[in-house]
Amino acid sequence: MNSALIPPIQPGRREAARGPSSRAGTVLIIVSGIVALLAALSFSFLVRMRSDVEETNEVVAEAQARIMLLAACDYILEASRLGYGAAPTTPAVAPPGNKHREAYGWLDVRDGMTGPRGDDPGWPAFFSLSLVEDSDGVGGADRRAWPAVKSVARCPMHVLQRPPFATQMKAVYNPISTTAGAPDRGYPYLRNPDPQPLITNGYPTVADSIPVPSHGNAINWDLYVHGDTQARIDSVGRSWFRVYRDQDATFVVTCGAGASLGFKNWGEVLGAGEQAAFASKQAFDQIVGAEVRLWYRVQWSAATLTPEYDNICAGLKTPNGSPYGNWDGFGQPDPNARDTYMMSPPNASSTWALNRCHTQAWNKNMVGTIHWVQRLSGPPTHW
């Protein structure tokens, strides 16, 4: 081969040609590394965010379940005396004897027998000892109906569109006039009923012999009495409680946050005929597995506050004119003060600023008291 035809290699030419390509590869590697690092950081951030959301949901569910304990205790208190009258009807019908049926406690305060019982002749019980409910879905009645001992009350806690006898959320129905020169300026006239129903003219007057307003609309009265009991969609399947009456005055309370509607297991769903509320047994089991369930044992007591509670009004002005009652305004007792027994009117407002006088409305436990609450570590045998 003629060496003269082969051009000589020029020193530095190949290095000059390969230099930019080598730098471009280095930049590509660096950019790829940065992208991979950003992707890893983003993935870690998303995982952390998901973990935070799950932890927040657990906290919310725990709070909802604990709120149900308060609802269950209120239910036990009120059911010791109230809720045994006939439901409102349309057209309105006066209750038997023109009175609402009322009980006298889970342990009857009149003779200590098992309640609730009424005041009709013979003091009839508001419960039956017959077995009428199927608690396990096998087809036979094996449980008494509420409120008998060994019975269960299951209470899904959704929000109604409009509860029966709903009142307005208005804060002031009778504002005091501040108009200069007005004849009623500064006078607290009670011109309007307080509170007022959510449905206009849906309340009776003194002249009404039966609960149908003579001045209003009978249709509005029915709307006021019955309410709109359809559930608000965004409140369904969030929380519930159930109460098992294990003894005369003690109860096992189960508080739940979830969509099981308070059913103990699938057998209880079958026994109640509520299969349509769930897609299948597997779906129900998944719902139960995702729920928060808490168990408590509580005891009801008939004890209430004395009607004279806090009627020793230490907030009246003392002889030296101090507006702080029995205190001199500096946290020290006023040597010239004296207690004054004063019965406030039942409809008076309670004041704390300068006149510490309470009213009978402060006696808030007219249906008894929850004597104690015991947290259980897990589900008991019967609940």
Features:
single chain, 383 residues, alpha+beta, 3 domains, 5-stranded antiparallel beta sheet, two-stranded antiparallel ribbon, 4 helices
Q: Please, could you describe this protein's structure?
A:
It is a single chain. The protein is of the alpha+beta class and 383 residues long. The protein folds into three domains: 52-119 and 126-159 and 232-303 and 370-383, no CATH class; 160-231, no CATH class; 305-364, no CATH class. Helix content is 24%, strand content 14%. The protein is built from four helices and eleven strands. The protein has helices spanning 13-79, 218-226, 266-272, 281-290, and strands at residues 131-133, 143-144, 152-156, 160-162, 228-231, 240-245, 250-257, 292-301, 312-313, 340-341, 369-376. The strands form four sheets. A five-stranded antiparallel sheet has the order 3-6-7-8-11. The protein has a two-stranded antiparallel sheet with strand order 1-2. The longest helix has 67 residues, at 13-79. It is extended and about 105 Å long. The model is unreliable at 206-210, 314-329 and 350-356 (pLDDT under 50).
